[in-house]
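// run 5 | inverse folding | seed 20
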């Protein structure tokens, strides 16, 4: 049976995060779209081959032909729109960052748990199979000492680009920093403290941020992101006996992906899994999760903890 997905938000992110991978599968149907402007929703549906454009969000989530909902609007609207889906009994894939803050995240997750409705955060990079390679290699570098994680990407400066509007949940920490924070958390656990936090503000939002973290066992980390720098992403994991360097842990399908293991025995390039890209992996994981075939990828993808890490950095500035 196919999963019939309805999209909330006629957003650019939906085109590559959901629509493209859905078209590559025979068990996912793009069943509907709803946007703030019904005319825009209709045009989006026609452009992307979506079965139906709904008049509003409530009509979409309450339609019996919709089996799950993908929320692709700015973070400021995630709480209210995911709530609509939960109250309609529809599982929800919420685009990152999950909400505006951890208080909203806790509220949303509590309501989802009470209703028995699955709600997860779209952390596509953490769904990719290369993480299994990384975790298998960790023992070779010995006890963890330090992690360095960063993600830069040039964000367009159009007047309507929400990523430059802090009130809508934009900014480098929320839009980009959520990824390096997730990579660090996935390897070393939840941060205990943040310090040496720096923000560079432009156009009404943080264009860049940098923070140092204290993690369990005395492990440290440096995380950073920049919305005005050329695309690039990297995670370096240093242990007592060696180092792992992961180039482009964000989206290996974009190229430039490599996993290098350095120890006293030398440097080895580890094989990367031959599989579809991170967005394809995310959709596959969501389908399997709803079918009861596996839990959402990893415990570290808990959206509450994701937002708590962001709040920690923000509050330490």
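// decoded
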């Amino acid at each position: 049976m196919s999963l019939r997905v309805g999209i909330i938000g006629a957003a650019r992110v939906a085109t590559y995060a959901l629509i493209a991978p859905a078209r590559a599968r025979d068990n996912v149907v793009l069943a509907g779209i709803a946007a703030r402007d019904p005319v825009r929703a209709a045009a989006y549906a026609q452009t992307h081959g979506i079965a139906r454009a709904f008049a509003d969000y409530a009509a979409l989530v309450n339609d019996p032909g919709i089996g799950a909902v993908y929320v692709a609007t700015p973070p400021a609207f995630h709480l209210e729109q995911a709530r609509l889906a939960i109250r309609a009994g529809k599982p929800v894939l919420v685009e990152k960052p999950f909400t505006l803050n951890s208080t909203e995240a806790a509220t949303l997750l509590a309501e989802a748990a009470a209703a028995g409705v699955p709600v997860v955060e779209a952390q596509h990079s953490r769904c990719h199979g290369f993480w299994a390679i990384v975790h298998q290699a960790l023992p070779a570098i010995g006890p963890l000492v330090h992690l360095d994680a960063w993600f830069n990407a040039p964000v367009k400066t159009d007047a309507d680009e929400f990523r430059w509007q802090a009130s809508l949940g934009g900014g480098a920490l929320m839009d980009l920093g959520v990824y390096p924070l997730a990579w660090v958390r996935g390897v070393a656990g939840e941060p205990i403290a943040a310090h040496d936090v720096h923000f560079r503000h432009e156009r009404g939002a943080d264009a860049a941020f940098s923070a140092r973290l204290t993690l369990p066992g005395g492990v440290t980390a440096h995380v950073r992101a920049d919305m005005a720098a050329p695309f690039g992403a990297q995670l370096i994991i240093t242990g007592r006996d060696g180092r792992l360097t992961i180039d482009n842990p964000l989206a290996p399908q974009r190229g430039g992906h490599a996993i290098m293991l350095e120890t006293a025995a030398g440097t080895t390039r580890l094989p990367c899994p031959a599989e579809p890209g991170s967005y394809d992996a995310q959709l596959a994981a969501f389908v399997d999760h709803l079918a009861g075939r596996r839990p959402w990828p990893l415990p570290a993808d808990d959206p509450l903890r994701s937002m708590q890490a962001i709040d920690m950095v923000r509050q330490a500035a």
